[in-house]
Input
Amino acid sequence: MGGYGVIIVLYFEIFSNVNAKFIYQIIFLCNNQVMSRKIVYVDMDGVLVDFKGFFANFDKNKINKFGAPALVPGVFSKMMPIKGALSAYKWLSIHFDVYILSTAPWGNPSAWLDKRLWVEKYLADLARKKLILSHRKDLLIGDYLIDDRLAHGSQNFQGKFIHFGSDKFANWASVINYLKEKENIK
Ligand SMILES: [Mg+2]
Output
């Protein structure tokens, strides 16, 4: 549509008195119709973020002090991405309307900030204003949820739940292959 759009605008600019801006608006609306993309939600810990790897060699005394790994302040911005996660997110962003849907521990207020910082550090503009932190993932409307846990409403998500880390979706390559086939993406 974009290519034809340029030709149409040039035609009207040269051969008619119709305002080109008006034509641009029509093309923009048409493109939006054609390009309306399915919504995909992607979890953070265990899907984009290597939570387990980060705590593999972490100070046990510090964990004990706060009661659980997820409750240690200041850690969520320091974790590394899971293998293949960043390129997978980029691929998803080309083909879908992608949002990050994560749960930040209520008992660890710094996690809410740290997750936002992680998203900016590793995904920058690709995920700008696309971070959703919720304890009720089932309330979000969308087509796919890629998550490693059934908690926080994931199992009641109304779209297709892609259980990351399960036998069927052991890694990002298997998730992408599934979506390619399901959505007929070359
Ligand atoms: Mg998770």
